[in-house]
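User: Just a sanity check before I run the rest of the batch. Below are the structure tokens for the first item. I only need the designed sequence back.
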């Protein structure tokens, strides 16, 4: 019996147990063990040989891993593979398939995971309504690289108040994600940039712990897997094309190439520099797949207001439009669109974050008038009030238009 089968942390003894999972893999768990049972099984002299630690800690590292940090037991797990020169073309082909024209950025993402695990990184969302697109292959590759430091969750696991099983993981993968509630999206966004986290297990008090987890989401819903609002900078969305002929042996081949891939990452120069709290500059993360989700989640009235204001600017050849909310409501009603003042205020002030003029002032706005041919046109109207001003530049930026 090896002495390190047991540890003592603080005043509590634990037995390190390899627990079989339904997947066929083994999970290393620490089970509280009584000192009397240890004495009965191994004799009283064995107790003094058990490694002793003052407390638990979490210090992620893949290149300089230490189980004992100071006098604390490190809950982060060492990875199974070490860098070794060799061929890793199969692994690189999977990365290229997933990230396409953003291939070098995809390599940066994995390289940062490996060499700088505490770095904040964007939430990756892989989409495809077709089968055999490589979503699971990519997630399984990362699972094989980072081992017990990656876990797979369901939507329900993420929503549960009991989160101790994934609170200290480097990667949290969620397949077939469906976060159609605002609170799901807000929680995910907040966690992606959090440094502290409340971890809770059944029957135990919540404890504050460090959080360095990165989320990897997959979905076959390309339009509404999660609520993403305009201007959001924390998502990296990729739509995956269909793979060629299915390869049932690819996972075995990928595992063989992991040491060479780690060697490749260890000697590769990053193609990007840190430009944001999620490392990558937001403009680099913007994809057509992300834009489709944003457009789908937009308030329909918000889109109508945008189109109306841009029509006025183009027709009148101006760069901005001023209006009071009653003016805007009248313009929309002319187009057969009903909207009360409170809804308009919510969009202009809360969503667009545009404030009215500080005082009642004179401004020029526009109203709709009919013509003899049955069409309509805009006419200038001078009014007074506390008005809002929206520019073409703002609308292009807010709606991420080219």
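Assistant: Here's the designed sequence for the first item:
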């Amino acid at each position: 019996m090896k002495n390190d089968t047991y540890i003592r942390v603080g005043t509590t003894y634990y037995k390190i147990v390899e627990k079989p999972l339904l997947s066929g893999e083994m999970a290393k768990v620490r089970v509280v063990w009584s000192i009397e049972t240890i004495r009965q099984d191994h004799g009283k002299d064995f107790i003094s040989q058990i490694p002793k630690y003052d407390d638990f800690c979490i210090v992620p590292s893949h290149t300089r891993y230490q189980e004992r940090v100071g006098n604390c037991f490190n809950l982060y797990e060492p990875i199974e593979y070490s860098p070794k020169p060799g061929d890793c073309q199969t692994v690189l082909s999977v990365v290229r398939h997933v990230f396409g024209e953003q291939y070098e950025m995809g390599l940066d993402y994995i390289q940062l995971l490996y060499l700088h695990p505490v770095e904040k990184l964007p939430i990756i969302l892989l989409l495809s309504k077709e089968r055999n697109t490589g979503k699971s292959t990519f997630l399984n590759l990362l699972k094989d690289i980072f081992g017990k430091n990656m876990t797979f969750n369901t939507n329900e696991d993420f929503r549960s108040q009991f989160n101790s099983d994934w609170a200290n993981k480097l990667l949290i993968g969620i397949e077939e994600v469906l976060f159609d509630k605002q609170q799901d999206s807000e929680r995910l966004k907040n966690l992606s940039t959090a440094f502290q986290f409340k971890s809770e297990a059944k029957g135990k008090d919540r404890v504050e712990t460090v959080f360095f987890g990165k989320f990897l989401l997959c979905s076959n819903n390309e339009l509404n897997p999660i609520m993403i609002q305009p201007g959001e900078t924390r998502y990296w969305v990729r739509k995956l094309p269909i793979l060629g002929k299915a390869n049932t042996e690819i996972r075995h081949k990928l595992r063989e190439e992991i040491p060479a891939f780690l060697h490749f990452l260890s000697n590769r120069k990053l193609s990007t520099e840190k430009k944001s709290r999620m490392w990558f500059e937001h403009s680099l993360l913007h994809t057509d797949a992300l834009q489709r989700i944003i457009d789908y989640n937009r308030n329909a009235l918000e889109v109508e207001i945008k189109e109306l204001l841009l029509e006025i600017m183009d027709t009148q050849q101006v760069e901005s439009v001023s209006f009071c909310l009653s003016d805007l409501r009248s313009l929309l009603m002319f187009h057969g669109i009903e909207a009360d003042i409170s809804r308009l205020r919510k969009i202009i002030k809360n969503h667009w974050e545009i404030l009215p003029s500080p005082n009642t002032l004179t401004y020029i706005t526009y109203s709709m008038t009919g013509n003899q041919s049955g069409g309509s046109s805009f006419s200038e109207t001078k009014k007074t009030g506390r008005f809002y001003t929206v520019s073409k530049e703002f609308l292009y930026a807010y709606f991420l238009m080219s």
